[in-house]
Amino acid sequence: MHFGQGPAGTEVPGMSQERLIALETDILAKNDRYAEGNRRVLGNLGAFAVNLVSSPGSGKTTLLCKTIEMLNARAGDAPLAVIEGDQQTANDAERIRATGARAVQVNTGKGCHLDGHMVGHAMEHLEIDPASYLFIENVGNLVCPAGFDLGEDCKVAILSVTEGEDKPLKYPDMFTVSEIALLNKVDLAPHCDVDLDLYEANLRRVNPGIRVLRLSARTGEGMQDWLDWLDQRLKAKQQSVQAAETPATETGPTETRSTETFPTETLGA
What pLDDT, on a 0 to 100 scale, did the predictor assign at position 247? Predict the structure, then answer.
């Protein structure tokens, strides 16, 4: 049986496909308005934001902690801040703060993903620096976060070698919208019946343009490639912002934007 073959991609008893599409369109349109507000704030700051998405247990928080430690160890590197998303507890935010990074914990309760409204309020509490990194660690879930824009520059999908080579085929939406996939825990590959080449092949079956990096947050293998990618993307963001400002500088004063504010209305899940 397959309940996702209709135009809406899902079925709900007693509700037509047209009604489902209308509801989803309304919810996502509202979220997109919040996301665009976040994107304007980040663009004005020249900050590069990544939305880290994965299933629970992929090693997402450990990878982020290792990333922060390596960035902090480099002299003159860009400042950073973190938004942590979980249904309950502040455990992950506490782990992030232990590295010396600023972090805000967002608990979604019964919600299965972060949305643009939540992230906007979290950004207000962080006081994000210009030309910095913003890491958004989403709730562990490979379904709902795929459809919700947070105002990030890109989604980064993390999957571990223990999850099965067919994971991208089972959850194609998430890997289709991700720019890069981090194949984590490769240090465990020799101890598992796993085919790393098949992982990559399946990722490219659902997203031919996705970039794949093999790494281990525990041993540090491949982590420098990930940091190099972050460096390149932050520099590209800053160059893009500078290029956008150049015409205004040449023709007259640059318009001063007011600080973004975020309404208190809460989005539906």
Answer: 66
Phi/psi of residue 46, nearest 5 degrees? 70, 30
Flag whether 267 is in a domain.
no
Could you tell me if 187 and 214 are in contact, meaning their C-beta atoms sit under 8 angstroms apart? no
Phi, psi of 207 (to 5 degrees): -150, 90
Domain-embedded: residue 247: no
The total of other beta-carbon atoms located within 10 Å of residue 9's CB is: 14
What gap in Å lies between CA 150 and CA 28, rounded to an integer?
Answer: 11
Q: Say if 249 falls within a structural domain.
A: no
* Residue 7 domain flag: no
* pLDDT single digits (tens) 221-232: 999 999 999 999
**94 within 8 A of 10, measured Cβ to Cβ:** no
Rounded to whole angstroms, how far apart are CA atoms 108 and 89?
Answer: 10
Place of tokens 């507000």: 37
